[in-house]
Design brief:
The complex is a heterodimer of chains A (157) and B (585). Chain A is mostly helical. Chain A has five helices and no strands. The longest helix of chain A is centred in the N-terminal third of the chain and has 64 residues. In chain B, the strands form seven sheets. In chain B, strands 2, 3, 4, 5, 9, 17 and 18 form a seven-stranded mixed beta sheet that branches. The chains are: A mainly alpha (157), B alpha+beta (585). Chains A and B meet through α2 and α3 of A and β3, β5, β8, α9 and β17 of B.
């Protein structure tokens, strides 16, 4: 009786073979997907790394150019040059007895230079890179699984 | 043949196994030894990371309105890659023609590099953009003609300190020794005082050769930018005035300080001699024999009668005298066994305290000093900061210690001479800081300073005014200001400013020599402020050894008037009548 029942549930051999083939193909596809993902992320990381190196040089170059332009502007607008330009345009220093003073509503006078905002509480100490940019895929997976298991077990800290 | 567990084959097997195990053990030992680790780490570093020096920009310095006083410009280092060099004579010749570099010097540098198997040699530095462009142009034109005689010539940009205003405010700024590319340093003034902030932190950024390893950007370690309290136009005007005064009065040096008495901010600080910090190597010829770089802070002198402002302030504040207190001036007074005379040896008769200031009577002020008493007089001087550095934020501040009762070099006569500004020495900045307490009408002595704000990593940190003491009450300050304004008006002083009510005091200080005071030479000074009802400017003038006249009232007082008029015009300050009409104050 038992033998008959076993017989009734046994798969046909071609079905078993098909199942095995399916599992193998599934595994290969999964490996390929992971490999493609890994390759893609690695390629992006490599490009970002190379870009970063280039940007650093570019940043230094730009900072140098900015400093140089500020210096040139400083020279062009130096007190000596501005006085010479004013004279060339026909301006002369005003005599005190000829000055006329008027109140301009809303004008609070010349304000001292403000180059940057005052310090505030939202200041960042260091530039922050997300861990996902520095972790390998396996580290990311491992970390994710660890967090998930800790969370599921209620022991996450 | 019997079965033997220790057969020869088994023995060989054991031996080889042992040898193998030993080999493995040795391999393991080598791999894990400290020496190997060190070598491996060094190789790893060499092969996996690059050390990139980050150029740190020195912070800019601007005036209160943002006008650049010290900045950085791009210059080029010209060098040669010896691996690609073809003809060294052509390189030396091209550099000599374009940059003026010495031909033989260039050749010897190249030869040194070749002899020592170097790959790169620096040939010249601090080449400006125009010449660098010319070098590149010549190099390219050779290449276009199929010649590579200038191959290997390289131009590397870097920053150089520059002062676009040249001599303007040079005594305040100091200078930076930019030719020393490895260990440049700020000297004197702001450049030295704030060198640590301006310089930033030198940084060598280590990044991985492996581009997969993404790293954070190196932190910005550039130096902080400084905003000074000075006003460029006022500074330029005061420097021109100091130069003119030097010439007109044939003085040895001239110093003018302008401060805001309400905040202690220095608006202008002109002193002679001045020089161009772009050519800082001329320092030795401009300031021979350890002449103070900035005489406003770095030179002490006996100020004479301008010091009476402090003596009278102390006497009024302590209640020893009032403006109406009278003194019968007989022309001389004896103190500590020494007879003191007035500046002209005349007797002025019955005088109020205002009259004593108006006529600048040494005899009267000696008497005032006696009324105050030794203890109170010197307590007030200490409260005014006399004998102590102001700690102004400039490098090179000098100080002459104040002799106090009990000191071996203090005698009773000092009370008398000190009360009219002789027998002690001060810097102009000490005087101006002390007198802020009188000039602002509040009795608050403000810390004189030049830093208005610091800009660091995208944020501006303001430097607020600081009260460093309350030596006198507001009432005393107002009373003395009124006395000094009245005395100038009664005297019809050349310090008066048309349209503005000002207060002030002249000073003519004798100069001590090895055998007592030197006759015929003086230090002429004037301290004044205004407008009296709303003080905006506190001005101190010091002319050293004027030749046209020895009297402060003759040579220094008119300079105050001219300085005040210029400052009022530059700051759009209406005359008193117009101000009262427009603003009601």
């Amino acid at each position: 009786m038992n033998a008959k029942i076993m017989q009734a549930y046994k798969q046909a051999p071609w079905r078993v073979q098909l199942q095995h083939l399916f599992y193998i193909v599934l595994a290969i596809v999964m490996i390929l997907v992971v490999a493609a993902l890994y390759l893609n992320i690695s390629a992006q990381a490599a490009t970002a790394g190379l870009d970063f190196q280039g940007y650093e040089w570019q940043r230094q170059d730009l900072e140098r150019q900015i400093a140089n332009n500020i210096a040139i502007l400083g020279q062009i607008t130096s007190e000596e040059n501005m006085v010479a330009r004013a004279k060339a345009l026909g301006y002369t220093p005003i005599a005190m007895d000829k000055a006329v003073y008027v109140v301009v509503p809303g004008y609070t006078g010349r304000q001292p230079a403000i180059f940057a905002p005052a310090p505030s509480s939202d200041m960042l100490a260091d530039p922050i890179i997300k861990p996902s940019y520095t972790q390998s895929l396996w580290e990311w997976l491992f970390q994710g699984v660890l967090i998930w298991t800790n969370g599921a077990g209620g022991t996450a800290q | 043949m019997k079965n033997n567990p220790f057969s020869r084959f088994s023995l060989l097997g054991v031996i080889f196994s042992l040898l193998g195990a030993l080999l493995l053990l040795q391999l393991f030992r080598i791999q894990t030894s400290a020496a190997t680790n060190k070598v491996m780490q060094e190789n790893d570093l060499k092969n996996t990371v690059i050390d990139l020096p980050i150029e740190t920009k020195r912070g800019d310095i601007t005036d209160r309105w943002g006008n650049l006083l010290a900045g950085s410009k791009t210059v080029y280092e010209i060098g040669i890659d010896l691996r690609n060099m073809v003809k060294k004579e052509s390189v030396a010749s091209a550099l000599a023609t374009i940059t003026g570099a010495d031909y033989n010097e260039t050749l010897s540098r190249i030869n040194y590099g070749l002899d020592n198997n170097l790959t790169y040699v620096r040939l010249t530095d601090f080449i400006d953009l125009t010449k660098e462009a010319e070098i590149i142009k010549v190099q390219k034109s050779f290449q276009a003609d199929g010649s590579n005689v200038l191959s290997g010539l390289m131009a590397t940009p870097h920053l150089q300190r520059t002062y676009p205003e040249n001599t303007l405010a040079s005594n305040i700024l100091g200078f930076y020794s930019y030719l020393d590319t490895e260990a440049g340093h700020g000297y004197f003034g702001i450049e030295e005082k704030y060198n640590e902030y301006l310089a930033g932190a030198k940084q060598i950024y280590r990044y991985a050769r492996d581009p997969y390893q993404i790293q954070s950007l190196p932190q910005d370690t550039s130096g902080a930018d400084l905003v000074l309290t000075i006003d460029r136009e006022m500074q330029a005007a005061m420097e021109r005035l100091a130069d003119k005064a030097l010439k007109d009065t044939k003085s040895q040096t001239a110093t003018i300080i302008v401060a805001d008495p309400n905040t202690g901010e220095i608006l202008a600080m002109a002193t002679t001699p001045h020089f161009n910090p772009n050519e800082y190597w001329t320092y030795g010829t401009t300031f021979p024999d350890s002449l103070a770089f900035n005489r406003a802070i770095g030179a002490t002198y006996e100020p004479g009668s301008v010091f009476k402002v402090l003596t009278m302030a102390a006497a009024l504040d302590s209640g020893a005298v009032t403006p109406e207190t009278t003194f019968n001036d007989t022309g001389s007074i004896v103190i500590g066994g020494i007879r003191i005379y007035n500046w002209d040896r005349a007797a002025y008769g019955l005088q109020t305290m205002t009259g004593c200031l108006q006529n600048s009577l040494n005899v009267c002020l000696t008497w005032v000093g006696e009324q105050l008493g030794t203890t109170r007089f010197y307590d007030y001087l200490k409260a005014f900061g006399i004998g102590h550095r102001t700690n102004i934020d400039l490098e090179g501040e000098a100080n002459w210690p104040l002799s106090l009762p009990g000191d071996p070099n203090w005698y009773t006569v000092n009370l008398g001479t000190n009360s009219f500004g002789q027998g002690l020495a001060v810097t102009p900045i000490q005087m101006i800081q002390a007198i802020t307490a009188v000039a602002n009408g509040q009795g608050k002595m403000m810390a004189t300073h030049l830093l208005k704000a610091m800009v660091d990593k995208g944020h501006q940190y303001d430097n607020p005014p600081q009260v460093v003491g309350n030596p006198i009450t507001a009432q005393t300050a107002k009373t003395e200001t009124e006395m000094l304004a009245t005395s100038l008006e009664k005297e019809a002083s050349s310090a008066l400013v048309p349209g503005y009510r000002v207060a002030g005091k002249t000073g003519t200080g004798e100069i001590p020599g090895p055998n007592g005071y030197v006759s015929g030479v003086t230090n002429a000074s004037f301290v004044g402020w205004g407008p009296v009802d709303d003080p905006r400017f506190l001005i101190y003038i010091w002319l050293e050894k004027p030749a046209t006249s020895i009297w402060g009232s003759v040579v220094a007082a008119p300079i105050f008037s001219e300085a005040f008029q210029t400052l009022a015009t530059l700051s759009n300050l209406p005359p008193d009548a117009a101000r009262l009409q427009l603003y009601g104050k």
